[in-house]
Each structure stands twice: as C-alpha cells, then as structure tokens.
Write a structure and sequence with these properties.
By secondary structure, the protein is of the alpha/beta class. Among the domains are: about 250 residues, 3-Layer(aba) Sandwich (Aspartate Aminotransferase, domain 2), CATH 3.40.640.10; about 160 residues, Aspartate Aminotransferase, domain 1 (Alpha-Beta Complex), CATH 3.90.1150. It has 23 helices and 11 strands. A 7-stranded mixed sheet has the order 1-7-6-5-4-2-3, with helices on both faces. Helix 14 links the parallel strand 4 and strand 5. Helix 5 crosses helix 18, helix 7 runs parallel beside helix 12 and helix 20 crosses helix 22. The longest helix is centred in the N-terminal third of the chain and has 30 residues. The radius of gyration is 27 Å and the shape is globular. The termini are close together. The structure holds pyridoxal-5'-phosphate (PLP). The site of pyridoxal-5'-phosphate has 13 residues, from helix 7. Keywords: Lyase, Pyridoxal phosphate. InterPro entries: GrpII_AminoAcid_Decarb, PyrdxlP-dep_de-COase, PyrdxlP-dep_Trfase, PyrdxlP-dep_Trfase_major, PyrdxlP-dep_Trfase_small, Pyridoxal-P_BS. Pfam families: Pyridoxal_deC. This is Pyridoxal-dependent decarboxylase.
C-alpha cells in the first residue's frame, strides 16, 4: 500500500479542520435523521397524531417555536467561543478532532436514548456494547471469548471498577481465612490468606465443608469492617492496618480519589518510584511487595500505567507481570495487576503490523503484555477519537469481572448478562459511547490496517514536530524518552538551572495561553516521583537541580491533520516563530527561527530521519 492510499483512507475518517467533508457528513447525518423520523412515523402507523396540523400553526405554538429558535441561535453563537479542539493548532490536552464513525455512532444512539443499565431499556445497544467490548478486548490481547467489561463515564470510574473488583476478591479470601481461624481454629497469616487464589479458596471451602454464607459475617465489606479488622488483629496479635495499593509515581489523581472513596485511607497509597525513564522501577516494586508482606498488609492491586498523562510513557507491563507470575509460582501469592491504559491502550492497535516498529522494543513488549493483566482501563474519549464521555473497564475473565454479590463468582455466572446494573458502579449509562466505539470498530477495526494507521501517523507527526522544533531552536529540551505521541520539553540554555528553566518555561506557557494561535498544555514533574528522570534531563543541560519540580510544555499529537504536507508546511514554521518570539520576550534575547539563514527541514527529509522503522505502511 502506498502512503497516499493510507492518507486518503485516514482523511475519510474525519470531517477535516476546515469542514472539508461537510457535504458528506451532512448527507450521513441526514440519512440517520431520515431513518429515525421514518421509524417513529411508521412504527405504529394506525395510531393518531398527537400534534395536529392546526395546532402546529397556532400562535402560541409559533411563539414557542420562535423562542426556541432564538435561543438555539444564541447557543450556537456562544459555542463559537468554545475551545477549538478539532484544529491542528490544538495540541494541548488529550482531546482532538473526533472521528466521523464515532460522531455518527454517538449521534445515532443519542436519538434513540437507550439506557444500557438494563436490556429492558436498551434492547439493541446493550448488544452493541458487548460487541464493542469484545473488539476492545481483542485489541488489548484478551481472549475475547473470556473477557468481560463495560463502558464507563471515563477512565476515573474504570479505575474505580478495578478497585471494587480487587477488593471483592481480596475480601472473599480474607474473610474465609478469618472464618476458618475463628470457627475451626486454623492459624491465620493475613498476607498469605489475602492472596490465596480462587483454587485454594475452593479447596478450603470443600475441605472444611464451609457454608459460604457464614463467612459473610467475617467480611470487611459485607459485615462491619471495624469488627472484622479487630478480629484479624486479635488472631495475628498485631494491629491489622488494611491493604495497600501500589501505584507508579506518576500517580494519576484518580488513584488517590479511589483509595479515598473506598475508605482505605491515603496511607494505603504506596507510590512505586520511577526509574530514569519515568517508568515503574520493577526492582523497587519487588522490594515494596516484600515490605507489604513483612508488615502483613495485603496488596489490593499493583497498577501499571500504559501512557502516562504527563508524557505518555509506558510502564514495563510485561516485567511487572513477570514479577507477579514469579511470586505466584514460588510463593503461591496471587496479586491483582491492573493496567491503567486510559490513554495508551489504543497503541495496542499497532501491534502485529509494521507500524509497531515506531515503538521502542520495551514499549512494544509492554503493550503486547496488556492481555496478561487482570484488568485494564481504556479511555475511548481520548485516543479512541470518541466524543465524551466514554471510558471502558475490561477484565481478562469472568472471575476478574465478578463483584457485588457475596456469592462465589462461579455461582454467579448465570446472572452476569442479565443484571448488568449489579456489576457497574454507575447506574443509568448512556449507550452513545458504546455505539460510537462499535461503529469505529465496524468501519475501521482496531487493528494495524485500520485504526492502527491513524495512531501510527500521530506518532510520526509528533516525532517530526519534535525533531523540527529542536533542530530549529536550540533552547528546546526534549524530555526523553518520547515513547508515543506526546512531546514534552522545557526551555533552557546550557548551564541553566532548573529553577530558571522553570521560570522561562512557565512564562512562555503564559504567552501561549494569551495568544490565540496555538494551544499547548503545561505539566510539571515532581522531583519526589521523577528524581532520576529530572537528573538525567538536567545533566543534558548542565544545570543544577534547584527546584522541587520540573515544568514542561506539553504537546499532545492526537490531531490527525498534521499528516497533511500542506498543514505541516504552514503551521510548523508558524509554531517555530511563535515559540521563538515568546522565548525572546521572556529571555530578553532574540531568537529567530533558522537564525543561520537556512530553511526549516522539509517534511520529507525529516520523515526519513525520524522514522525508527519502515516509513511506509
Ligand atoms: C485520563 C486518565 C485517567 C482518567 O480518565 P478520565 O476519563 O479523565 O476520568 C486515568 N488515568 C490515566 C493514565 C489517564 O490518562
């Protein structure tokens, strides 16, 4: 396939920054509306009309109609001031142009207003939801036949879904052990019990003829958590301190919220220090697991992040899972691994195609290992090009999906399909996101030949942009590694200290905010979490680390239109000039683009230089 074919197919997925595909989108929207109008009209053809013609031309009717028209016109006027996220000039946060399949899927479902909480109010879309979940499960490497999941309002709630289920599992195991200690006088090792695994759980149930209903009394969830905790303390002769959640140092806010909402207390939140590349340090994780074991604190879950919110880095999911597998094999400890792939999960659509060569081997291995984790968070409303609000929670199997009922997951299987509401934190759930993902999957496919091409292109666009900017302006300091399609950099001259670099970077960010031309975002990496990464970055500049955090400008390259040679040719020099201008004002010096009188690199030259693998696919 030629590059041109690839670009043409991608351009058939978006409206275009200047509404290039307006006529086409209009006709598809019209077709959807026509079908909807006709469906309503013809469904019960013998029913009377409720709004007769003479009423529709009456004065009060026309007055009300006029009033609404005025307000709609006001609303559309107001909305012209909304943040323009569709344009390639918007490279700020994790949002951009939405895709046509997603928009049309969302719009179609919206008209029918289904509630996916129950099949009684969503006969069709709850089936579409299951199919869309299957498509996402296949993308991340789960066996679609065994995987379960549902759509949520976003990544935050999907992460809570994981905590809820991990707690359900841990609580079953712990309360059985406590029951056996209380009622059968068996010795109690809290850490071992909390990670016993379902196999051991059912062995114990059978061995001691346990009536599962009776273990409920010892549950920290289904009974009184304070009473159960004091019983645990009494048996082990040391105060039970509750479980810990191990989260990488880049800790998205949602994890702190989760620990707080589920009542574990913020000291249950253990941070896994990051290595020199800003990823989970697996050796330190092993030490933390040992510490938790020594302190008798169950590990509720180990979290890996695939695509951090700051810089898009991908944790070594494979090596974290290797570590947990090894503990399971040698110590019989079954520890839950959740991957927060809210942003980065969609990079898995590259795997198996030539586009995967754009990813560093470690990142590729991490994404290829997603399917080994118990559960995964995805955010279709980020890199899935789907309208808000649409997150997704996926579990590897029915066991990991089980929650809520106190009965054993094996016994509950029959209920899973029927009463979805019992298995989701949210009650009423829109079908719009699920339908948007479904149509994307049908029209494009979450594989290298479809969706993967868009994703591959965004990585190339990002690297080209980063390369051009750094070769044009020497004070642009790229944060390494640039794993995906998020480019972070700060502004510093040789020998400049972190505090001064922060001041300049922050001041330039303020200038971007005040200027209408481009939207970038700002992030800051704390020294507490990113000590090694910051040290490595500042070593490249030769400046002292004299601040508690590193301020970065952040460009998220989700926008597909940077693949256009014309867009790049016009906007790239504009961005270089804008940044140079802002920096000049902030630093008091003058930095013109291409100060050596040379031209900016052309797109085609850079493509060759940037691609870490085959440029054509
Ligand atoms: C965005 C994000 C979340 C939260 O998702 P929302 O959709 O904003 O609720 C969680 N984790 C990571 C890594 C994210 O990037």
């Amino acid at each position: 396939m030629t590059d041109i074919d690839h670009l043409s197919r991608m351009n058939a997925c978006f409206l275009g920054p200047r509404s290039e595909n307006e006529a086409w989108l209009r006709s598809e929207m019209q077709a959807i509306l026509d079908s909807w109008f006709g469906w309503r009209r013809d469904l019960f053809p013998d029913d009377p009309e409720a709004i007769p013609y003479d009423e529709r031309v009456s004065v009060p009717f026309l007055q009300q109609r006029e009033k609404l028209a005025r307000q709609i016109s006001r609303l559309t006027d107001i909305l012209r001031d909304e943040v323009p996220k569709h344009t390639p000039r918007y490279i700020g946060h994790m949002v951009s142009e939405i895709s046509m399949p997603a928009l049309l899927g969302h719009f179609s479902a919206l008209l029918h207003n289904p509630n996916n909480t129950s099949k009684e109010v969503s006969k069709v879309t709850s089936v579409l939801e299951a199919e869309a979940i299957t498509a996402l499960a296949a993308m991340v490497g789960y066996d679609p036949a065994g995987a379960s999941g549902h759509f949520t309002s976003g990544g935050t709630v999907a992460n809570f879904e994981a905590i809820w289920r991990a707690r359900f599992r841990l609580d079953h195991w712990l309360s059985l052990a406590l029951y056996l200690a209380e009622e059968h006088g068996l010795p109690l090792d809290v850490f071992r019990a909390a990670h016993m695994g379902w196999k051991r759980y059912f062995e114990l149930i059978a061995m001691h003829g346990v009536d599962e209903g009776k273990t409920r009394h010892y549950s920290l969830v289904a009974s009184n958590p304070f009473e159960a905790a004091s019983l645990l303390s009494a048996h082990t002769r040391s105060p039970y301190k509750g479980p810990v959640v191990l989260v990488p140092g880049n800790k998205h806010f949602s994890w702190l919220k989760g620990v707080s909402i589920f009542g574990f207390g913020e000291r249950a939140f253990w941070t896994i220090p990051l290595d020199g590349e800003g990823r989970t340090d697996v050796a330190v994780l092993a030490d933390l697991l040992d510490r938790a074991e020594k302190e008798g604190r169950p590990v509720l879950m180990v979290v890996s992040v695939a695509g951090t919110t700051e810089a898009g880095e991908v944790d070594p999911v494979d090596r974290v899972q290797d570590l947990l597998d090894e503990r399971k094999a040698t110590r019989g400890q079954d520890i839950w691994h959740h991957v927060d792939a809210a942003y980065g999960g969609f990079f898995a659509s590259l795997l198996g195609g030539v586009g995967e060569n754009l990813l560093a081997p470690g990142v590729r291995a991490a994404l290829a290992a997603l399917g080994r984790a118990q559960s995964i968070t995805l955010d279709p409303h980020k890199l899935g090009y789907v309208p808000y609000s649409c997150g997704a929670f996926l579990a590897r199997d029915r066991e990991a999906y089980s929650v809520s009922s106190f009965h054993a997951p094996y016994l509950d299987r029959a209920d899973l399909g029927a009463s979805v509401w019992a298995y989701t934190l949210e009650g009423s759930r829109s079908a719009a996101g699920a339908t948007a993902v479904w149509l994307t999957s049908e029209a494009l496919g979450f594989d290298p030949a479809g969706f993967g091409q868009i994703i591959a292109s965004t990585i190339e666009n990002c690297r080209l942009f980063a390369k051009t900017l750094t070769t044009s302006l020497p004070f642009v300091r790229t944060l390494q590694p640039l794993d995906t399609n998020i480019f972070c950099f700060n502004l510093a001259e040789p020998g400049m200290s972190l505090a001064e670099a922060n001041r300049r970077t922050e001041a330039v960010f303020r200038k971007f905010v005040a200027s209408p031309h481009f939207s970038v975002s700002r992030t800051s990496l704390s020294r507490e979490s990113y000590e090694q990464l910051i040290a490595a970055h500042m070593a490249g500049i030769g400046g002292a680390v004299d601040a508690d955090a590193m301020v970065l400008l952040r460009c998220v390259f989700m926008n597909p239109f940077w693949a256009s040679a014309d867009v790049h040719a016009q906007l790239m020099p504009e961005f270089v000039a804008e940044l140079a201008g802002h920096y000049g004002e902030v630093s008091g010096a003058s930095f013109g683009p291409a100060a050596d009188g040379g031209e900016l690199p052309r797109r085609v030259d850079i493509d060759e230089a940037v691609a870490t693998g085959p440029a054509h696919f």
